[in-house]
Amino acid sequence: MSREEIAKAIRRLPSRPAQLFNHLFFKTLFLFSAKKDALDVPGETKRVLILAPHIDDDIIGCGGTISRYINGGVRVHILYLTTGQRSRHPFLNEKQLKEERKREAYRVAELYGLKDLYFLDNIDGNLCLDHQNVEKVLDLVEQIQPDLVLVPFFLDYNRDHIETNRIFIEAARKAGWEMSLLAYQIQCPLSPGTINRVVDIDSSILIKQKALELYKSQVYGKRFFQTVLDLNRYQSSLARKKCRYVEVFLHLDIKKYAYLFKRMDERYDISKHLEGFGDNSSLPYSFLKGSRLRKEVKRFLCSWY
């Protein structure tokens, strides 16, 4: 059987056996992977800007890290690029869903003690690199002067996630590249070869879980949110220090990140080579899908480390 056939078979497993399989799968896989140093949070960082394609992506990818930054006295700013109004909901129309998702963002911000939220109000699915989006991001970067920017890693099946990278890279170029970068995972797990930083979120896993529970409009997201937390647990095997939950990142010079994205974007229609996970049963398939792209990215990263 091929890797994809095995992964598809796993997808048919019910929830608890799938969790057990994934625990063994990732434990075994990461046993042979180089252990990663913990990221110093907050370190010298004073101002953080997080670009989230959709309302909830920030918490999915780095909700525990956000809490650690805030507790360390760092000012965190979050920019949501789309409204999320086209998410499926059995009772709310697009206008109501747009309003409800924004209310959820503010509820999560209150939970965290966040005060700086910004909304570009693009319709999800229609996000694109255009002058208006770039200028708004550039204006925000110049206003905040962040030490660190977090963006979703560009190897993702969701086009809004990929377009967020196009917009940010162009804004960063115009801003003179004067900031550090962390790329976080959302629905396509980062492979060990693209992870070079982990953050211990044992102290903040509960607030991340509570935040995910506040996204009640995501009626189809309960199993997905649980899988996000499970993945944080599986990936803890990558950390040098002993911990139960981690969030993982690619930390890279912005110019190199931009070059890498450009090379991959020119050669591939990235989203068509990848698949996002929806729950534990689809997580291994999502991890294995797009192995060719992941290996190519790893070769570049290995030459730079």
Radius of gyration: 18 Å
The 3D shape can be described as globular
Would you give the CATH topology? Answer: Rossmann fold
Number of strands: 7
CATH superfamily: LmbE-like
Provide the spatial order of strands within the biggest beta sheet.
3-2-1-4-5-7-6
Protein name: PIG-L family deacetylase
Organism: Candidatus Hakubella thermalkaliphila
GO molecular function: hydrolase activity, acting on carbon-nitrogen (but not peptide) bonds, in linear amides
InterPro entries: GlcNAc_PI_deacetylase-related, LmbE-like_dom_sf
If you had to describe this structure to a student in words, what would you say it looks like?
By secondary structure, the chain is an alpha/beta fold. Helices cover 48% and strands 13% of the residues. It contains 11 helices and 7 strands. The chain has helices spanning 3-11, 15-31, 57-71, 94-112, 131-144, 159-175, 205-213, 222-234, 254-267, 283-288, 291-304, and strands spanning 47-52, 75-82, 116-122, 148-152, 180-184, 197-200, 246-251. Helix 4 (94-112) links the parallel strand 2 and strand 3. It starts with a helix and ends with a helix. It comes from Candidatus Hakubella thermalkaliphila. It holds the Pfam family PIG-L. One of its GO terms (molecular function) is hydrolase activity, acting on carbon-nitrogen (but not peptide) bonds, in linear amides.
Summarize the structure.
By secondary structure, the protein is of the alpha/beta class. The chain has helices spanning 3-11, 15-31, 57-71, 94-112, 131-144, 159-175, 205-213, 222-234, 254-267, 283-288, 291-304; strands at residues 47-52, 75-82, 116-122, 148-152, 180-184, 197-200, 246-251.
